[in-house]
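Design job #97: recover the sequence.
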């Protein structure tokens, strides 16, 4: 840079030319050389920065793996809670790094793979928590061990895939085999056929015949499938036969045209090209119809989740025979859904959607057996609260994936019909009349990719904090204790706010979120009142510290209430308010994570906590006012011991950007 500046410095020229035109530089060779060196240096700096980011991600992955090994070997619940807290922090760091990297990726295929891997890690974090707790509670239970091992194995595979994407490499130098779909095969085949108009000699007839054979071989996935209707199967076979005949006619005219380019032959060639392409379009339409109609029927049929409900009921009853019967039905359902994903991949239309179909297939393949092992564990230990909770978590993952498939099916149809829709985002302004009759009807504002990524990071932190709070409340013998009830209520509401950051759950608009934040802050204030009452029962030297922490809680809750009630107009202001609400909710939950173990310690120290406090009005009464409990998740929570996952059952949607 300095060399270029020196060579092009006008002040250094003593003798300007007589025609009044100043020669800026005379050493052209020197400037060219310096410019090349400058470009080379900039490139090296960018490459170095990229290497640093990759190294950060690898280092973060290694920390997560090391902590996972500790979690696998842990033998006491107390030790597990401590290590899981560390694990949660490391997962947040890893999520931040990989989220930034995902946004930086230019390859849509890699973006989709990264999104799929990160989704697995996020969902498996909760599974790892409950599966490990179940194993600790029932160390001699083989099905519980199998369940836990499955979660750890899947998380390791997802971590490995992230590193493969980031480093653009595969283990042992293997090359990635890209899956070939019927849709992409037909597209490439048609391009080659239509290319004959411009050049009769750019490929051989053998190449064209081979391409068609590969396509027709893939159609056997449809014709051999037990779930393809008889009508679709017959149509696909007829069109496959017709495609062969059209290609034979095309090759015949093509070979003649190579020898003699007459007007009549070129017209015949054009007709043959059009007929071949038309036949392939009809074949594509038929397989698309077969795949999407099957998917629509299956999703509609399984929308009631009857098998999962039966597994939960028979598990609680300890009915091993009935559990075995329903696990067989779940295995059949899994095979149907896996086949559905395979057929949808053929007609997905884009590489990112193909990868999403593969991810969905893997999810059903893995989650099915995990539900079965969790159900067997519950049947063997029907009174186990954690075993019930564990089964619920895996069932919710299954329900979530089914819900995701509905959106995926819609996106595949959009691509087929030429409507390449934008990525889904949530409505960021209130619905008219939802919570306030005086609200004006405002047009929904969409968040851009950067805003979604930012809010998703905060959401993940909130998610992990809810897990920590639930782990702390689990320690209390008296689950009716006022402090525990408020803590559980706040955890549940924070979880619903986390789901909002993913575009899922029962909070659909920002107005829903702001209203939930107000109720959450009110619940925090009630908890502070309970802490004041509890402080009268502890020693004087502990009382002042407890009251100080209670005042901190009141302060952060008031800040959240002020933020939630503040007005916001326009997209930017609304997002800023959403961001601030999630951030302040996270601050409250962080403080709650410190308060609960402190109270538990003081309770044990004074041996006067359980049952001595008057029960507070249930937090559920406030939740009713939010309009977010249409399916009474509270009742299910009481039955299966789930605190933070209440809102995870309904209205799960495919997210994301991912």
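Job complete. Output follows.
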């Amino acid at each position: 840079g300095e060399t270029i500046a020196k060579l092009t410095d006008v002040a250094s020229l003593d003798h300007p030319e007589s025609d009044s035109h100043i020669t800026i530089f005379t050493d052209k060779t020197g400037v060219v050389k310096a410019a090349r060196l400058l470009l080379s240096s900039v490139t090296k700096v960018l490459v170095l920065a990229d290497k640093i980011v990759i190294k950060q991600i690898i280092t973060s992955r290694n920390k997560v793996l090391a902590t996972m090994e500790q979690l696998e070997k842990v033998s006491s619940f107390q030790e597990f809670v401590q290590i899981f807290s560390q694990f949660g922090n490391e997962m947040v760091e890893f999520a931040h790094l990989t989220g930034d990297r995902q946004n930086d990726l230019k390859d849509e295929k890699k973006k989709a793979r990264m999104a799929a891997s990160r989704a697995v890690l996020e969902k498996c974090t909760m599974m790892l928590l409950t599966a490990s707790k179940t194993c600790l509670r029932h160390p001699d239970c083989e099905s519980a061990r199998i369940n836990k091992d499955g979660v750890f194995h899947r998380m390791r595979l997802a971590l490995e895939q992230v590193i493969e994407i980031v480093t653009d490499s595969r283990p042992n130098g293997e090359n990635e085999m890209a899956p070939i779909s019927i849709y992409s095969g037909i597209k490439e085949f048609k391009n080659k056929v239509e290319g004959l108009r411009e050049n009769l000699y750019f490929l051989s007839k053998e190449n064209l015949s081979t391409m068609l054979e590969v396509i027709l071989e893939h159609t056997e996935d449809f014709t051999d499938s037990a779930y393809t209707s008889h009508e679709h199967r017959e149509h696909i076979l007829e069109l496959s036969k017709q495609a062969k005949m059209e290609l034979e006619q095309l090759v015949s005219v093509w070979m003649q045209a190579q020898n003699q380019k007459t007007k009549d032959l070129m017209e015949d060639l054009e007709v043959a090209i059009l007929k071949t392409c038309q036949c392939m379009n009809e074949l594509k339409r038929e397989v698309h119809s077969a795949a999407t109609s099957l998917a629509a029927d299956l999703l509609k049929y399984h929308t009631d989740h009857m098998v999962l409900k039966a597994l939960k009921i028979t598990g609680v009853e300890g009915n091993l025979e009935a559990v075995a019967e329903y696990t067989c039905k779940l295995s059949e359902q899994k095979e149907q859904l896996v086949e559905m994903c395979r057929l949808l991949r053929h007609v997905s239309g884009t590489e990112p959607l193909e990868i999403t179909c593969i991810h969905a297939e893997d999810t059903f393949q893995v989650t099915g057996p995990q539900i079965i092992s969790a159900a067997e564990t519950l049947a063997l230990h029907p009174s186990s609260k954690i075993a019930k909770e564990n089964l619920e978590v895996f069932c919710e993952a299954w329900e979530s994936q089914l819900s995701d498939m509905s959106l995926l099916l819609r996106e595949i149809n959009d691509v087929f019909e030429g409507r390449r829709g934008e990525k889904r985002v949530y409505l960021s302004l209130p619905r008219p009349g939802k919570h306030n009759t005086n609200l004006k009807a405002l047009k929904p504002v969409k968040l851009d990719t950067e805003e979604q990524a930012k809010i998703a990071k905060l959401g993940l932190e909130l998610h992990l904090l809810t897990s920590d709070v639930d782990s702390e409340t689990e320690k209390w013998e008296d689950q009716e204790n006022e402090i525990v009830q408020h803590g559980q209520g706040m955890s549940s509401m924070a979880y619903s706010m986390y789901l909002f950051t993913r575009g899922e759950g029962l909070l659909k608009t920002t107005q829903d979120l702001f209203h939930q934040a107000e109720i959450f802050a009110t619940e925090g204030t009630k908890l502070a009142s309970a802490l004041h009452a509890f402080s009268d029962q502890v020693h004087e030297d502990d009382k002042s510290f407890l009251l100080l922490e209670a005042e901190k809680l009141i302060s952060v809750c008031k800040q959240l209430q002020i933020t939630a009630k503040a007005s916001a107009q326009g997209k930017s202001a609304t997002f800023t308010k959403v961001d601030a609400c999630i951030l302040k909710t996270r601050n409250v939950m962080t403080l709650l994570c410190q308060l609960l173990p402190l109270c538990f310690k003081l309770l044990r120290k004074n041996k006067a906590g359980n049952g001595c406090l008057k029960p507070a009005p249930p937090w559920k009464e406030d939740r009713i006012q939010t309009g977010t409990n249409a399916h009474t998740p509270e009742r299910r929570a009481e039955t299966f011991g789930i605190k933070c996952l209440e809102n995870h059952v309904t209205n799960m949607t495919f997210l994301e950007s991912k």
